[in-house]
Task: structure prediction
Amino acid sequence: MKHALIITTISGFVPQFEMNDVRILQENGYTVHYASDFENPIYNIDQTQLKRDGLILHHIDIRKSPFQITKNTKAFLQLKQIIRKEQISLVHCHNPMGGVVGRLAAKASGREPYVVYTAHGFHFYEGAPKKNWLLYYTAERFLAAFTDRIITINREDYERANRFRLKEHGCVEQIPGVGVNIEKFRKKPELREIKRKELQYIIVMHIVPVGELVENKNHAVVIEAVARLHDENIYYSICGKGPYREILEHLIQKHHLEKQVRLLGYRNDVQDVLQSADCFAFPSKREGLGIAAIEALACEVPVIASDNRGSREYMCHTENGIVCQADKVEDFMHAICRMRQSGQLRREMGERGRRTAERFSIEATDKIMRRVYQEISVTQERKR
Result:
């Protein structure tokens, strides 16, 4: 029996985004192990269900911050032991610190497993702070030497990763994100008024964003835009949780927007909440891709997005939405006004958005990942 180990910093990452990869690995004859910090989940996680799905779970003391040296060193030692004890032949790392400690542990284990790293958006990119280039670029360039295959989710990262020197016969792949369930995320006209009533809004214009309440997601710029427009018929409902909640609450209170801006918290029914939206806001300063925006496009909801390397993969200005500069409140004000003025424009953008989203379907991603895992399986069989 072959054993594969998936490593993530965020413990809910696999059930949220990577279960199709798990199934493909199992179809290729692998027993799948999953190592993460199960004591600090970001996404909802049902460990019992994961075990029913055939995963073997391993808690490790990994931390998101590279400066949590003690915890991440412990995670490195834990992973090295897991790789040796479970006779792991394939290591697949996700998230930056998962990629760091996972690849170092694979190298130090002495077993020489095949190593894959999926970069869900490098922290170094055009326009990134110099400290990001100094820390993350240096680390990724060094760790590439311990990597058989790097998988990226946007063109900029793909081209940059191709300049790294990987292990002998190593290569770089690009996938269209983790894949959107096109059937799940689709327009459902029958739910539109139902969801609006549930939100208890007298809604004329409803804008929905989905994302963690963190500085990078840049929710504040849209709140500022709504405040400056002085239009009581514009509503903004944020789906997500995170450490910036209190900061956003203070901003909402400062502008007296309690009746117009609502923090909905983490939602398991995003696909339904989107049915109530006239447009979707995605103002992130940095994104590797931005799967939430693509899910909105799949629901035929036009997107107001910031210009970053992720959104450039799918946003076409004035075709499926409006593209803004992340730091310009005026851009978002103009975009909201334009969306507000024309239902026909929103419908046309939404229809084109659906066609855009189809390029990022689960099926499109699975086709590539199935080939990748099959190639790895063949490679490992030849080594036996």
Remarks:
- The chain has a mean pLDDT of 94.
- The radius of gyration is 21 Å.
